[in-house]
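Page header: ASSEMBLY MODEL / two components / 1028 residues total.
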Amino acid sequence: KIERSERERGRKMGIRFILMVNKQGQTRLAQYYEWLTLEERRALEGEIVRKCLARNDQQQCSFVEHRNYKIVYRRYASLFFMVGVDDDENELAILEFIHLLVETMDKHFGNVCELDIMFHLEKAHFMLEEMVMNGCIVETSKANILSPIQLMDKAH
Amino acid sequence: MNSIFSGTRLRDMIRSIRACKTAAEERGVVRKECADIRASINENDPHDRHRNLAKLMFIHMLGYPTHFGQMECLKLIASPGFPEKRIGYLGLMLLLDERQEVLMLVTNSLKQDLNHTNQYVVGLALCALGNICSAEMARDLAPEVERLIQFRDPNIRKKAALCSTRIVRKVPDLAENFINAASSLLKEKHHGVLITGVQLCYELCTINDEALEYFRKKCTEGLIKTLRDITNSAYQPEYDVAGITDPFLHIRLLKLLRVLGHGDADASDLMTDILAQVATKTESNKNAGNAVLYECVETIMAIEDTSSLRVLAINILGRFLSNRDNNIRYVALNMLMKAIAFDDQAVQRHRVTILECVKDPDASIRKRALELVSLLVNENNVKQLTKELIDYLEISDEDFKEDLSAKICSIVEKFSPEKIWYIDQMLKVLSEAGKLVKDDVWHALIVVISNASELHGYTVRALYKAVLTYSEQETLVRVAIWCIGEYGDLLVNNVGMLGIEDPITVTESDAVDVVEDAITRHNSDMTTKAMALVALLKLSSRFPSISERIKDIIVKQKGSLLLEMQQRAIEFNSIVDRHKNIRSSLVERMPVLDEATFNVRRAGSLPASVSTMAKPSVSIPNGVAAAPLVDLLDLGSDDIMAAPSSSGADFLQDLLGVDLGSSSAQSGASPGPKAGADLLMDILSIGTPSPAQNNTSSVDLLSTAGINNNPSNALDTLSSPAPPHIATSASAGGMFDLLDGLSPSPSKEATNGPAYPPIVAYESSTLKIEFTFSKPSGNPQETNVQATFINLSPDTFTDFIFQAAVPKFLQLHLDPASSNTLPASGNITQNLRVTNSQHGKKSLVMRMRIGYKLNGKDVLEEGQINNFPRGL
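Prediction written out in full:
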C-alpha cells in the first residue's frame, strides 16, 4: 500500500500555474496548466497576490501554502514571479526554475521589466512554451529555449 | 502588422488599459475593445485576426470573458502561415480547455500539423497537444506522437516525449505503446530530450505495473550511470547553475530512481553508491545544490532500507534545519515530517529546534513546524511540549492563535494522561484564545468536567478565577457560567479542595456578578446569554439568600431584543416567582454527560439530528442555552430513538436521577412518545415534580398519540399535571417552539433510521426552493433529494429550468422536473441524486442556477447551498 502511495504522487502535475504580478497586484502574465474558470482564476489570483505581497519581509521564506497549492514566489525589481505547484514538488528547484526563467527573459529582452512583458505578452508566452509543457520542464538551456524564438523574429 | 485597419493597435490598447486609474475605467476600455473585436470578427478579414487574438489574450489575462474569440483561434491554426499558426495555437492553449467541444474541431488541423514538413509547425502542434489534449484527441493522435519521439531533431523529440506523458495520463491503456520509445530516450545525450524522457518514464511507471518492472530491470543501471556522468561532468556553461550541472536533470533522475527503488531491494541496492555520492559531494552553499540534496534525501527515504544512507539523510536535514536561510529551514521541516515514519528518534532529537521554528516570525515556517510538532507528541513528552506551546500561545500573533490553539487542543485531548491536567490545559487555552476555539472543543471540555465529579469544586474555582481576568474570551465565559450554574455551591463553600489549591473567598454575590456580567455584556452572543440565563435560574435555587437579586437580573431580560431571551426570561421568572416548591428539583444538577456517546457523535458517525433541528427561518437553534447541552447529551441520535422501550426509560431515568422505569412501565408507554418526553425534559433541564405526576403525564402523552403532528397539544397535556399555574401561555408557547423543530425527527427516525430535516435551499422574492432528503438503504454515500420549487409571485413562470453543479468529490444526477411551468403560488418538484465520495468527511455543497420566463422576460437566479444537514 505504501508503494501505491509513492506512485500516486507521480500522478500529480508538477507546475500548475505561473503568474507574473506587479507590485500593485496587477497580473501581467498568467499561464495555467490546469483548467480553472474565469471566476476561479480571478479569485485565486487575488488571494495569492494578497498573501504574497503581504509577506514583504526579506527574511521570510519564498513559499506560501494556499488551498491545495504551494506557491513558490520570488520578487525581481517590481515584478513578482509566482509558481503554483503540488504539495510535494521540490520547492527549491522551482525557485531555481524561476531564476532560469528570469535569466532567459533577461537574455532576450535585455534586463527585462514589467513593460517588456506587457507589450510582448506573446513572446513571453512563447518562451514559457519552450520551457514548460503540461506542467513539466522541457528545456533548461537558455540558448535552446531562445533559438526558435530568435529564428522566428528574424523570419518576420 | 500595420495600423491602417480599423480599431486600435495592440500597443495602443495596452497603453490605454495601463492609463486607467480605476477598475471601472478599465472595464470601460475593455468593453469597447471587445465590441470592436466582435465587429472585426464579423467582418471576417483575415488580416485582423492576428491582432484581434493578441488583444484577446491580453484581455483574457486581465480576467475578462473572451469565449467569442475561440473560433478565431481555429481559423488562425488552419491558415498556412507560420506566424498565424503560432498565435492561433497560443490562443488555443490560453482561451480553450479540453472540455470545450470547439476543441474537437481542431483535431484535424493538429493531425495535419503533426505531419507538416516544417519542423517548427510540428513543434507548435506538439506543444498544444501536450498542454490541452483530451482523452479522445489522445487516442486519435497517439500514433503520430509515437512516431515523433524518434524524429531526427531533438527539439521535436523532447516535445513529443512530454506530449506522450499527457497522452498516457489521459488514456492509460496506451502506456504499453510508449515503453520502448521511452527507454530509448534515456540513452540520449541532449539534456532536453533526457529530462523529458525521464519524465515520460516516470509517468509510465506510475500508471502501468509492467512499465515499472521493465524500467526497473532494464534501465536502472543506465540511469545510475547517467546521473553519475552529469554529477561528475566537467563545467558546461550552458547547463551550469552555481557549480552544479543541470540541477533540474539531477532532480528528475533522482525522482525516477525513487520510484524504481521503492519496494525493490535489488534496485535500491544498485543505487546506494550514487546516492551516497550525491549526498556527500553536492555543494550546499547555494540554492541549486540544496535543491539536489533535498531531492536526494527524499529518494533515500523512499527506497528500501539502507540504514547508513538514512543516517546521512537525517544529518543533511539536521544541517538544513540549523541553516539561516528560511527556505532551507522550510524544506527541512517539510522533509522531517516524512522522516518521522521511519526514524522517530532521530527526528525527536531536533525537537528543541523545531519548537523554536513554531515561534518563527515567518508564517509558512510556523505552520510547517506546528504540523511537525504535533506529529512528535507522544505520552512521554506531551506535558513538556504542551507547556511550550501554551507559553508561546500567550505571546503569539493574533492570526496564528487559531491554528495554534486548535493544535494544542487536539494534542491535549489525544494524549492527556489525567483529567486534572486536561482541564488545566484547556483552561489555559481558553484563557488565551477562547474567542478562537471551535464549539466542539468547549463542548468536549464540559463533558469531561461533568464526568470528573471529584474535580467539580476545583474546576469551578479555577474557572471563576480565570474568567475574572479573561472575561473577553467568549468560550471561557461559557464554560465558566455553565460550571457556576451547576456547581455554584461548591464555589462559595470551597468544597472538595485539592492540596494544590489556595483557598479563595467567593461570596454568592460574587458568583452571580460573573454571570450577570456575561448576560449584560454587549458583545456576548446569544448562546452565552442564554447559558447565563439558565445559570441564573439554577443559582436562584442554590443561593436562596440572594434569589431576589437574581430574579431582578432575570426580569431585566424580559426587555431583551432577542425573542428567545425574552421568552425564557418570562418562563424562568415565573418559575422563580411562583413555584418555589418545585424549583429545587427543576434545577438539579445535570446528570453526568455520556462521554462515549459524545465522542461518537463528535467523530461525525451519527447524524446530528438535534443540532440541525432548526430550519433557517426559526430562531431557536443552538441559541437556547439548553440546546448545546442537548447536543452533548445526544438525545437525538438514532440509537436512542430506535432502541427498545427500556432504553428510552433508562435514559430518562439517568437524566432525572429518578426511578421512572416502573411508572413508565405501568403506563405501558411505547418508545415513541417517551422519546419525545425525554427531549422535552432535557431541553428545559427540568426534573419531573414527582413520579406520580409523571405517570399521569405519560399516560396523557399516550392518549394524544399525535405528539409529532400536534406538539402543542402534547405539551398542554404534559404541563397539565404540574401545579395549574405553571402552564402560562408564554411557557407553553416556548416549549411549543422547541418542539416544533424537534418533532419531525423522532417520528422519521422511528421508521427510516437516520433522517435529515428538510431545508430551505434558496429563497428570493419570487421563488423558494425546499429540499427534503432520504437515503437509500445500503449506500450511505448516496442521498436522494427532492427539490420543491415554489412560486411566490402572482405570475406564472414558464420555461423553468433548474441547473446544479457540485465539486469533484460529489456526483450529481438530475431527474427531469415534474413540469417546466410553475403557476402562481404553485409548485413543481424535481428529484436529484447526489453521491458523496467523501461521505463522513465532507458535507454536501451545491451551486445552482435557475432560469425561467416571467411575463415574457428571462429571469436568471443563482445561489449556493451550504446549509445541507451534516452527515449526508
